[in-house]
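Deliverable D2.4 — example input (structure tokens):
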């Protein structure tokens, strides 16, 4: 979401005559986009601003956006010396106004206001990371309030984009040569637009599965979506994937823990049985759907037995990859009030053990790809070898293969002959 925000801010600033540079040395204005979901974001911001101030005789204008901006607001000016303006998560459409205020001599300008009704969701080709892949936010914010998570506070309530606007964007991107779109949001499958506009002709048990069918009907080559919330993961989503080849065979479904007791304390709104039901449905699909997840170890009150349940859960699900995090208390969240009673040592031990179990399951699991053919979008020349191209498969694996650069932007068929821990190698077919 943060990358996507940055792309849109760059688009809007470039449209207003600013020249975008990614090199700090050349910049007159530096915008720092912050994320506080896991890292010690405030500390990082403090050192970054300090470094910039020290390095240049004439200090560039420094603006802060993202979660830290939203959560801290004006207090950032007191905490960190050198910041010129602060723009919250829903005020990113007004960065140019903030810059103007600072250039006109206003000190400590803060905008934590709501998104404007005519906010421009488009990203210019030049500001996208890849000419062939685009991210479309379909829902922003989060209403779930998992007890450990800062997002509902930093991103506000859920708000869905009208389907007709999403379809318009997909068609426009397709016309401009984009091959793969990612529908993104904290919980894409909680998608609930205010009207049915754009969905009228599509069947589906939930607005999200209708949206998937509507986007599939645009015939854009590849559609991925991320992240899904287990409670709202209706089996009709799997049916939609089965029906439409351009809906990619990858689902990211964060489970967080294998213990019902911990899940309840996290307020995740799913149980392990209900999660397994969704996994079973995904595994029954005829699409060979790749499954990935997020897991937190060391949540307050997590006993050894709870952790063993997490290990069993990982063994049951056979994830293609899992992002594992050590619990870290976020001020302002309900879990911050709970006693952080799992020691750093035990958190690290559980992290290391789970990581090694997952790695070993993963390497066995990924062997199913050997000698198989996967569809890959050739995205760029490999940084390791000028004779190789690299891209993502429909199952969202990084795949490297020997090919010349005239294949860039094409969807190619690759036969896999080697599995590495984080990528696949193969040859063009
Ligand atoms: N501590 C550790 N991990 C966290 N995540 C979110 N908040 C925390 C926290 N306080 C992880 C969750 C989530 C992912 C994006 O970050 O696993 O799914
Ligand atoms: Fe955070 Fe839970 Fe919302 Fe995900 S669903 S963003 S973990 S509160």
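Example output (designed residues):
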């Amino acid at each position: 979401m943060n990358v996507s925000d940055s792309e849109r801010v760059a688009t809007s600033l470039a449209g207003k005559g600013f020249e975008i540079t990614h090199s700090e040395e050349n910049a007159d204005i530096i915008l720092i986009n912050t994320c506080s979901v896991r890292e010690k974001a405030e500390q990082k911001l403090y050192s970054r601003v300090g470094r910039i101030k020290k390095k240049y005789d004439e200090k560039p204008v420094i603006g802060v956006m993202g979660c830290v901006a939203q959560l801290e607001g004006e207090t950032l000016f007191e905490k960190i010396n050198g910041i010129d303006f602060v723009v919250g998560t829903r005020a990113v459409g007004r960065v140019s106004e903030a810059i103007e205020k600072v250039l006109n001599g206003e000190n400590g300008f803060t905008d934590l206001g709501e998104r404007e009704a005519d906010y421009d969701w488009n990203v210019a080709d030049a500001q996208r990371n890849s000419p062939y892949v685009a991210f479309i936010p379909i829902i922003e914010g989060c209403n779930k309030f998992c007890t450990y998570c800062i997002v509902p506070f930093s991103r506000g309530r859920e708000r869905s984009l009208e389907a007709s606007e999403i379809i318009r964007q997909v068609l426009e991107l397709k016309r401009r040569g984009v091959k793969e779109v990612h529908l993104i949001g904290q919980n894409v499958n909680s998608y609930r637009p205010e009207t049915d506009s754009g969905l009228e002709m599509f069947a589906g048990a939930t607005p999200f599965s209708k949206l998937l069918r509507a986007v599939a009907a645009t015939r854009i080559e590849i559609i991925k979506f991320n992240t899904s919330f287990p409670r709202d993961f209706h089996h009709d989503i799997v049916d939609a994937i089965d029906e439409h080849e351009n809906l990619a065979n990858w689902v990211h479904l964060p489970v967080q823990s294998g213990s019902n007791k911990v899940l309840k304390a996290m307020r995740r709104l799913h149980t392990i049985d209900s999660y397994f039901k969704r996994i079973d449905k995904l595994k029954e699909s005829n699409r060979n759907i790749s499954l990935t997840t997020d897991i937190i170890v060391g949540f307050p009150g997590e006993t050894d037995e709870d952790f063993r349940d997490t290990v069993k859960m990982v063994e049951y699900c056979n994830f293609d990859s899992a992002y594992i995090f050590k619990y870290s208390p976020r001020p302002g969240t309900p879990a911050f009030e709970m006693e952080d009673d799992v020691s750093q040592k035990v958190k690290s031990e559980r992290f290391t053990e789970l990581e090694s179990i997952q790695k070993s399951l993963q390497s066995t699991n990924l062997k199913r790809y050997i000698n198989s053919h996967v569809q890959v979008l050739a995205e760029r020349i490999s940084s390791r070898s000028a004779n190789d191209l690299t891209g993502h498969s429909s199952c969202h694996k990084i795949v490297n293969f020997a090919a010349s650069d005239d294949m860039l932007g094409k969807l190619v068929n690759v036969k896999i002959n080697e599995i590495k821990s984080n990528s696949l190698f193969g040859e063009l077919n």
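The longest strand covers residues 373-381.
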